[in-house]
Write a structure and sequence with these properties.
heterodimer; A: alpha+beta; Folate-binding fold; two-stranded antiparallel sheet; 2 helices; 35% strand; B: alpha/beta; FAD/NAD(P)-binding domain; D-Amino Acid Oxidase, Chain A, domain 2; 2 domains; 8-stranded mixed beta sheet; 10 helices; globular
């Protein structure tokens, strides 16, 4: 697989390590009401779709940026790659 | 038709005209007492034990493809019970005992071959860990022997013993472990279940689980609605997709695992070996091919094929363990989709939907578990209580902190 890095251009997937579903960017507030349920879902439960999947890849053998890659889990086609930092800031959880 | 040596001889002298199809190809009935979704090894084993041990009538197995086309025909055929934790070891030991009596139970030659599985260790720490594991196995009635380097050398003199980085310090041997012809497991269970009246319905994809007032009524399929008193889902690899039809989310990610076969060789390897310094396991099939595998590719995937970096990684592991394989050519490789659970252990449990039962999360250890999984799932479906060896495989264990994490990796499915 080739991952089109937004800053570095096309890079071999071997340079990256994989974390999982990009929903992990939005860590729930552990002190809020209902935090137990929210954290349980955050840590353990996954949508695990067959098809388009937004997921976190870390460019370990490169510029060490975290990316949000939108990839089809059936065809491996990659349709969008964003810096996870930008995604987190846009969600208001990167401060 | 009962199979026997006499039967083979009789057919041989009468032109093999007496063989009949091994199972029927029935039209689905409007409803069943129990519908099992998924005609893989686990689903078929469940049907067999439901019919043979729990006296269940009116059982159907629904399969979207054909019998033997999924993971039961895609694994590396290894059976073993070398687990450590209390939640796992009694279950896998029961599975190994069921393998030992499988062919008599099914009247089907599944080529169960207890050729021994040897886990190699490469450091003092790893040897200590294997001693701990071996003792845990023996406490649960399994067999385990800790071998020194000399004993390993006598068994497999061709291994790379004196590697500077990963010398072989010994190994943990389970002599009762081995291999089974995986297709025959699917066919044998299908035939045995069919002979007791179970309808095996192939090419019938489940498109929906019909739930009303928190109770399952049946399954919508590509061949129409099939009513069911109880629905058991055993579709590991696709568990999240099927259970989502009932509105359930699971602690599971789907990953692809590749397996490989070399060209046919003369007999070189009479047991199963696993490499302790990399992830690599190998045995030799009766046709002569080295059957081997390694890690999952590591990212969510529903594609039944993997990528080349993992091929390279697995072959590197093989080469560093037994350099002679460098002379053999890779013949075939393929992929299967695994339910990777959050603690590396499976789930056999009821669900919040009444009448809906779940069996999945097998990671890449599902094949060896086939008989025990079928028996435990049949027990659950028939009695609504967990089988005594499967009490820890609860769906809610992630919420209440009762994980069964053999590798101690935490909630990272791609590392189990």
């Amino acid at each position: 697989m080739i991952i089109p890095h937004p800053l570095l251009g096309p890079r071999d997937a071997q340079e990256f390590t994989y974390l999982g579903d990009a929903s992990m960017i939005q860590r729930p507030d552990g002190t809020a009401e209902g935090a137990e349920d929210a954290l349980f879902n955050y840590v353990y439960m996954r949508d695990n779709p067959a098809g388009e999947h937004r997921e976190l890849w870390y460019h370990e053998q490169g510029d060490r940026s975290w990316l949000v890659v939108t990839r089809n889990t059936v065809t491996h086609e990659i349709t969008q790659v964003e810096l996870a930092r930008d995604v987190a800031l846009a969600l208001g959880c990167g401060a | 038709m009962r199979y026997s040596g006499f039967r083979v001889i009789r057919e041989a002298v009468t032109g093999h005209k007496g063989w009949v199809p091994v199972w029927r190809d029935p039209e689905p009935q409007p409803s069943y007492d129990i519908v099992i979704v998924g005609g893989g090894g686990h689903g078929l084993a469940t049907a067999h034990y439901l019919a043979s041990r729990y006296g269940a009538a009116r059982v159907a197995v629904i399969e979207k493809g054909w019998i033997g086309g999924g993971n039961v025909g895609r694994n590396t055929t290894i059976i073993r019970s070398n687990y450590m934790l209390d939640g796992n070891e009694p279950f896998y030991e029961m599975s190994l005992k069921l393998w030992e009596g499988l062919e008599q139970d099914l009247n089907y030659n599944a080529m169960v071959s207890q050729r021994g599985i040897l886990n190699l260790c490469h450091s003092d720490g790893q040897r200590d860990a294997y001693r701990l594991r071996g003792n845990a196995m023996r406490l649960h009635g399994a067999d385990a022997e800790l071998l020194g380097p000399g004993e390993v050398r006598a068994m497999y003199p061709f291994l790379n013993f004196d590697d500077a980085r990963f010398p072989i310090k010994g190994g943990l041997l389970q002599r009762r472990g081995g291999t089974v012809r995986h297709d025959a497991v699917a066919w044998g269970y299908a035939r045995a279940a069919d002979s007791r009246g179970v309808d095996i319905i192939q090419n019938c994809e489940v498109t929906g689980l019909r739930v009303e007032d928190g109770r399952v009524l049946g399954v919508d399929t590509s061949r129409g609605f099939i009513g069911a008193g109880k629905v058991g889902v055993a579709v590991a690899g696709n568990s999240s997709r099927v259970m989502a039809m009932a509105g359930l989310r699971l602690p599971i990610e789907s990953h692809v695992l590749q397996a490989f076969v070399s060209e046919g060789l003369k007999p070189v390897l009479d047991g199963v070996i696993t490499y302790g310094a990399g992830h690599f396991y190998v045995s030799q099939s009766d046709k002569g091919g080295l059957v081997f595998g390694g890690d999952i590719d590591g990212y969510n995937s529903y594609a039944q094929r993997g990528n080349l970096p993992t091929v390279e990684d697995v072959c590197e592991g093989g080469l560093s363990l037994m350099p002679m394989v460098g002379q053999a050519r890779l013949l075939r490789m393929w992929g299967g989709i695994m339910d990777m659970s959050m603690d590396g252990s499976p789930i056999i449990d009821r669900t919040p939907v009444e009448g809906l039962y779940f069996n999945g999360g097998w990671c890449y250890g599902g094949f060896k578990a086939t008989p025990a999984s079928g028996l435990a799932f049949a027990h659950l479906l028939a009695t609504d209580t967990p089988h005594e060896t499967a009490t820890a495989y609860r769906l809610d264990r992630f919420r209440n902190g009762r994980m069964i994490d053999e590798k101690g990796m935490g909630a990272t499915p791609n590392l189990h």
